[in-house]
């Protein structure tokens, strides 16, 4: 594979010597906004990489793609399919972004935007637009790679902390072939504004590559962490507490909604719920790996009335309030002793726990 990558780089150097690719740097945990790059005739006058070759020969780009198809094994060119959402789909959850990268934590869809400007002043505007489109594509995929590696695994760790350098390289290679959507529109002075959106879904095959194999799913052995000091609760209505306890013991609750709004919490791939002593009451140890890969350990939303939440948690969910969020990634959620006991009672049913019927509300 390393030989193939080296040869691909050599082909690109030989065939595309005039491409000017300005990439915006991104930190491990976040990406910054992009500034459109102006690509004009100066960048493309010598090579003609995007135009057709002489006498009907393939263009340089076609030659590169042909070389990849002939020399790079399919498994090294593999891309992750992005299921098309139904036009009537309401499965939209908590969506966070910075302009360059957007993550829908309800559906698991991650999108990255790359932009460039093709100058209209040269004698070959079509070539300038093609070069701008290539730059925007590379930029979008670079943002996508950095965003995925910068995701929080849980409240204490980033995803990148659990991947070896070889695994990171392999993941970047797969993300390099992510599906893209291209668009262009006229600008001032004959310029063309080019944008490319690269997308992946943090579910299924990609999730299998992201979630470490070392995580003990369905072990029933709870995680233990250092707990923060929680504020004392106001006096509770004991009749209401006993009623909820009876509901939990009877298996009447269909899921759990944890309200952590207003606490500056953040989403993660594998968040956990803890009691006041720092003992987990819900997390990967309660769920099957296959179910987590399919739909996520929890879903995130900003309202308990979101259709996504109701479908996930059923018609009679247990609604609790987080008492604190903790961890460097702000994704560990701590519950009161009473609510933690109710969650434990609910998940004594293996049938319930394996379906991951948990939603976390953030803002």
Automatic annotation (TrEMBL):
Record region (Disordered): 71-93
UniProt keyword annotations, A-Z: Signal
Source domain of life: Bacteria
Signal peptide segment: 1-22
The keyword Signal is assigned to this record: yes
Protein name: LPP20 lipoprotein
């Amino acid at each position: 594979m390393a030989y193939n990558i080296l040869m691909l780089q050599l082909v690109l150097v030989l065939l595309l010597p005039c491409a000017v690719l300005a990439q915006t740097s991104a930190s491990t945990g976040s990406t910054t906004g992009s500034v459109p790059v102006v690509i004009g005739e100066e960048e493309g006058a010598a090579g003609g990489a995007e135009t057709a070759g002489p006498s009907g020969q393939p263009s340089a780009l076609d030659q590169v793609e042909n070389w990849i198809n002939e020399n790079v094994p399919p498994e090294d060119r593999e891309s992750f399919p992005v299921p098309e959402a139904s036009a009537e789909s309401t499965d939209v959850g908590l969506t966070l972004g910075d302009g360059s990268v957007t993550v829908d934590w309800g559906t698991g869809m991650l999108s990255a935007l790359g932009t460039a400007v093709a100058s209209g002043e040269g004698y070959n505007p079509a070539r300038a637009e093609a070069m701008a489109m290539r730059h925007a594509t590379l930029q979008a995929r670079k943002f996508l790679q950095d965003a995925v590696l910068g995701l929080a695994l849980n409240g204490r760790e980033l995803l990148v902390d659990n991947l070896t350098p070889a695994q990171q390289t392999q993941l970047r290679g797969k993300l390099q072939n992510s599906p893209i959507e291209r668009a262009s529109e006229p600008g001032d002075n004959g310029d063309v504004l080019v944008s490319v959106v690269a997308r992946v879904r943090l579910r299924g095959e990609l999730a299998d590559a992201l979630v470490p194999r070392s995580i003990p799913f369905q072990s029933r052995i709870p995680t233990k962490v250092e707990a923060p000091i929680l504020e004392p609760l106001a006096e509770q209505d004991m009749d209401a507490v006993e009623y909820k306890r009876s509901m939990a013991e009877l298996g009447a609750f269909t899921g759990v909604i944890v309200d952590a709004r207003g606490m500056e919490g953040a989403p993660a791939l594998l968040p956990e719920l803890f009691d006041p002593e720092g003992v987990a009451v819900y997390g990967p140890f309660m769920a099957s790996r296959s179910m987590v890969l399919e739909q996520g350990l929890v879903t995130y939303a900003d309202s308990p009335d979101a259709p996504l939440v109701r479908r996930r948690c059923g018609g009679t969910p247990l609604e609790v309030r987080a008492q604190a969020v903790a961890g460097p990634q702000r994704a560990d959620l701590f519950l009161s002793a009473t609510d933690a006991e109710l969650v434990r009672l609910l998940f004594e049913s293996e049938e319930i726990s394996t379906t991951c019927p948990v939603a976390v509300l953030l803002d």
